[in-house]
Specification:
217 residues, alpha/beta, Diaminopimelate Epimerase, Chain A, domain 1, 2 domains, 8 helices, 4 strands, 11% strand
Length: 217
């Protein structure tokens, strides 16, 4: 799972995103950071739930078939536990490594909570709260969850309603679905720049305080 962020964009696309952020920041005193992470959380419980859901019915089917064939008994409890253990271990490893299958056993609420928590954590870890005028904006893209979260500092939140970020999030998520994430990110960054320049126009002594693009495995 750790390679998801590194493989999300190719080198040319990374350069385009960085340039888009640079261009947007020339319009505003706001600081925009695009962050791509492989996953917001490892979701270990999904492995257990999925393995149990798949192993139990298969063990229940296999026990009477094999028990009757080898004269062990169709209801042999030890045989059932043996099958359950083997199937559980097998499916646990498969689900852990098969991302689309793992997502089936994770609720949308859990995904939303974990991505939001990751955005808040990275907002502070990357120092977005330390900008001179409290104008940091984090665009977090969590690849495994296919989820985008935008988090702005209080200087921006005082003037820009939170609901205005929804359209920008949709630009990126739609672009990811259409297999053109770089185009979507650049378009979203441009929209953020246009939105911020109204309230936070660029100043003569403005400097780039933060990295434009951060990728975390």
């Amino acid at each position: 799972m750790k390679d998801l962020a590194q493989n999300f964009l190719v080198e040319d696309e990374r350069t385009r995103v960085k340039n888009a952020v640079t261009a947007a920041e020339k319009l505003t005193a706001g600081e925009i950071v695009v962050m791509i992470i492989s996953t917001s959380y490892q979701y270990p419980l999904a492995n257990v739930i999925g393995a149990t859901a798949l192993a139990l019915p298969l063990a229940l089917i296999s026990t009477p078939l094999v028990g009757a064939w080898f004269w062990i008994g169709a209801q042999n409890m030890w045989l059932l536990l043996g099958f359950l253990t083997v199937f559980f271990i097998l499916f646990h490893e498969v689900i852990k490594r098969t991302f689309w299958l793992k997502r089936i056993f994770i609720s949308q609420r859990e995904i939303d909570d974990e991505v939001e928590e990751a955005a808040v954590t990275q907002f502070f870890d990357q120092g977005l709260y330390r900008t001179r005028e409290e104008t940091g904006v984090l665009v977090l893209i969590s690849v495994f969850e296919r989820k985008v979260w935008i988090l702005a500092d209080r200087g921006i939140n005082a003037k820009v309603p939170a609901g205005q970020w929804n359209d920008i999030v949709k630009i990126i998520t739609d672009g990811i679905k259409q297999k053109c994430p770089a185009d979507a990110i650049c378009a979203a960054v441009e929209k953020i720049g246009e939105l911020l320049k109204t309230h936070f126009p660029v100043k003569p002594d403005d400097t780039d305080e933060l990295k434009n693009l951060i990728e975390l495995s």
